[in-house]
Design a protein that fits this description.
17% helix, three-stranded mixed beta sheet, 8 strands
Length: 209
């Protein structure tokens, strides 16, 4: 015969199981609901567009300071070029100063906009207007007089045979961005058909003979 104690214990187990079932996963009255998905915002706002800001004025600043200031203002796409059109690289930004900026100070643009600074070395004078490198030569020889040998070379076809001689002394023309063209052969306007090109040059600041 089954004792009364065993029967009572079995009934107790059934009661507890029923209570747990009544308060199981279907009970959503608590405060632990799953957070909603897709509620994050972009840095630019609800519409996903990039933030816009007024461009600061950089002219007259050292190039490194201008770049640091631009980054602090939220602009990250920065570039620079030689305002004298000589094709020099701004390897040490602290040695250069800003002469021009491609976006006028005060203009409101996206922070993704590239800011380009025209610059010269600290001991140089900014030109009234940025000078440009010669355009790519087509079928005729451009006029390279006064242009840097570096930009003259870059304007010609990469396969062109080019020789450069010092017009004043017997020096080696090593850093071509520091030398300006005095004479050229073929002459400006001559048809280019793959013939060799000859330049004579002096350093910038010197006069052609």
């Amino acid at each position: 015969m089954i004792s009364r104690h065993i029967i009572g214990a079995a009934i107790g187990v059934l009661v507890i199981a029923g209570t747990a079932s009544a308060c199981g996963p279907d009970d959503t009255s608590g405060s632990s609901a799953t957070p909603a998905v897709g509620t994050s915002k972009t840095a630019g706002g609800d519409d996903g567009k990039a933030e816009t800001k007024a461009v600061p004025g950089f002219i007259g600043m050292g190039l490194q300071s201008a770049q640091d200031s631009a980054r602090s203002a939220g602009f990250r796409s920065l570039s620079s070029h030689d305002s004298l059109g000589r094709g020099r690289m701004q390897a040490f930004d602290r040695n250069w100063k800003v002469c021009s900026q491609n976006i006028a100070a005060g203009k409101v643009v996206s922070v993704d906009t590239e800011l380009d600074f025209g610059a010269v070395k600290l001991d140089e004078t900014c030109p009234a207007k940025d000078q440009t490198a010669p355009a790519k030569a087509g079928g005729a020889m451009p006029d390279f007089a006064g242009k840097s040998v570096k930009t003259a070379r870059a304007a010609l076809d990469s396969g062109t045979s080019i020789s450069v001689k010092d017009a004043a002394e017997d020096r080696f023309v090593l850093v071509e961005s520091n030398w300006q063209v005095c004479t050229q052969k073929p002459a400006a306007g001559a048809k280019l058909n793959g013939q060799p090109v000859e330049f004579t040059a002096v350093k910038f600041g010197e006069s052609c003979p």
